[in-house]
């Protein structure tokens, strides 16, 4: 799905109390069933299992709710999460205010004082959902392929190529392509400002451009591929690319 974009939100909940965990899980499921985005929920009540999960899936998931009733175990999980994923949103649950201050270096996104309070959990889930969606829109291209929701970091995309309504996403770092049905106009509305529409068939990540061939009206990418620039859009494309280069020099 591209137009009317729907996102996948992946949630992980750790709580050492099986009863509290079940209650939080029930509240979370009710909340995410009420939004238009797809979600995936994973729960556990053992710190070792939580650590193993974060090591395996921490880079992929979006929202983490961590029980801090045992500070020493929980802070290890929070530190592990931050090693895996600085963009993830996570909440400190059921810990003392004093320990919250000690945990601030791990950058919690929210604080749930009482997981027995359903309203408090719902308010935090709403906050973390919005934070997660903001991160996805800013850093990832999200799309549905063969029933599965995928997201590719913008920095890993070399260019999009369109032929009729069939689009090919060329992934740079893995030298991999994805094929799906979409309109390049819709994709252009979704990608980061680093992309330029240089042709009716091409949408290019300017980070991947090695040079602009003024004579032949084309971009040469670091992969040695050549992307044509249409005569109609050449002036605007050249100006956008020059502004991009100037902004890079200022960084």
In short:
This protein is an alpha/beta fold and 251 residues long. It has helices at 18-33, 47-57, 71-84, 97-103, 118-139, 184-188, 234-250, and strands spanning 8-14, 38-44, 63-67, 89-93, 110-112, 140-145, 148-153, 157-163, 166-171, 176-181, 195-199, 202-205, 209-213, 218-221, 226-228. The relative contact order is 0.10.
Give an account of the 3D structure.
The chain has 251 residues and is an alpha/beta fold. The chain contains 7 helices and 15 strands. It has a 5-stranded parallel beta sheet, sandwiched between helices. Strand 6 (140-145) and strand 7 (148-153) form a beta hairpin. The longest helix is centred in the middle third of the chain and has 22 residues, at 118-139. The two termini are 35 Å apart.
């Amino acid at each position: 799905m591209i137009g009317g974009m729907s996102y996948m939100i992946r949630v992980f909940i750790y709580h050492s109390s099986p009863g509290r965990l079940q209650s939080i899980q029930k509240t979370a499921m009710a909340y995410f069933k009420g939004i238009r985005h797809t979600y995936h929920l994973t729960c556990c009540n053992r710190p070792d299992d939580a650590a193993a999960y974060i090591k395996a899936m921490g880079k992929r998931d979006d929202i983490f709710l961590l029980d801090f009733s045992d500070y020493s175990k929980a802070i290890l999980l929070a530190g592990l999460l931050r090693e895996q994923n600085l963009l993830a949103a996570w909440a400190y649950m059921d810990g003392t205010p004093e320990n919250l201050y000690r945990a601030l270096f791990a950058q919690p996104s929210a604080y749930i004082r009482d997981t027995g309070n359903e309203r408090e959990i719902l308010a935090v889930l709403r906050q973390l959902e919005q934070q997660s969606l903001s991160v996805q829109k800013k850093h990832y291209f999200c799309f549905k392929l063969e029933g599965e929701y995928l997201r590719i970091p913008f920095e890993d995309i070399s260019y999009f190529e369109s032929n009729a309504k069939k689009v090919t996403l060329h992934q740079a770092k893995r030298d991999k392509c994805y094929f799906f049905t979409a309109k390049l106009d819709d994709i252009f509305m979704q990608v980061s400002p680093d992309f330029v529409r240089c042709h009716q068939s091409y949408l290019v990540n300017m980070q991947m451009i090695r040079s602009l061939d003024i004579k032949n009206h084309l971009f040469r990418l670091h992969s040695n591929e050549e992307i044509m620039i249409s005569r109609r859009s050449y002036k605007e494309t050249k100006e956008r690319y020059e502004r991009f280069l100037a902004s890079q020099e200022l960084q």
